[in-house]
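ok here's PAS domain S-box-containing protein/diguanylate cyclase (GGDEF)-like protein:
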Amino acid sequence: EAKSRGRNDFQFFHADMAGGVVAQLELVHALRGALRRHEFVLYFQPQIDLGSGRLLGVEALLRWHHSRQGLLPPARFIALAEEIGVLGEVGDWVLETACAQLAAWRNSGLEVPRMAVNLVLQQLEQEHFVERVERVLQRYQLSPGALQLEVTEAMLMRQAERALAHLHGLRALGVGIAVDDFGTGYSSLGRIHRLPIDQLKIDRSFVGDIGHDSADETTVRSIIGLGKTLGLEVLAEGIECDDQVLFLAREGCQAGQGFLYGRPVSAREILETYGR
Ligand code: C2E
Ligand code: MG
Ligand code: MG
Ligand code: MG
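and the structure:
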């Protein structure tokens, strides 16, 4: 079959493959210099109290302004950044910039109660990570409670000792800890109550199936129940319609985030929407 396609097909295939490798190498090269060239930018998505509709805070979401490809979402570069070892440095930038932004909004008269920042394991394993966070908070005169750090369920299950010690240290400091994409991993119920966490974020794949998939509805109910039992705030990710809000509120979920309330937007747009 391959032979019958003939020589031109083979050449086409070959060129295409080479193009893929070159494109990948270019991306790696561009990614290495992106921080220095100030090509990263943070977008912010509102987190809402489902009962009152109040703004609880925002989550900082990273974007890369690639010189030729435009604004790239994290799915296009996070894994690669981690692979080439620059995600720790990028993560530091995210933390610093997110805190600076929270302080800047406050200076403009907009009181955003909380800033959620996503972490990677590489960061959580950095030496003196707790002190690093403490210094950033001090630099921008933020109370530790104004910062919520998001770790994924998968990260917690890796049982990395230093990372776990750092989580305990951050919690002791008063920084909030959220478990992102909850429900997609394999947390053992025996361990979860001993982890230093404050919030469970129900993964949006379950939220999206409310009203369509009773198994996923059961998962959502179980997570809300688990949160209640452990005294944790439960936030549903990826809320896109009112029916989902009704279901979640009825089940006792306190907080939500999703396109229904607002897509991730620039800092200026947050100020325009919530400031006065
Ligand atoms: P995440 O932390 O679970 O962030 C939520 C993602 O869901 C965001 O995608 C957001 O745009 C998207 N989303 C929110 N509401 C809705 C909705 O109603 N419908 C749908 N379909 N999607 C919704 P985004 O910004 O592309 O980020 C993807 C992931 O990349 C994040 O998932 C997070 O794991 C990672 N990420 C983003 N920024 C950072 C960062 O600064 N550091 C690290 N380590 N990871 C980050
Ligand atoms: Mg997150
Ligand atoms: Mg998530
Ligand atoms: Mg499903």
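+1. Residues 209, 213, 216 surround magnesium ion (ligand 4) (CB under 6 Å).
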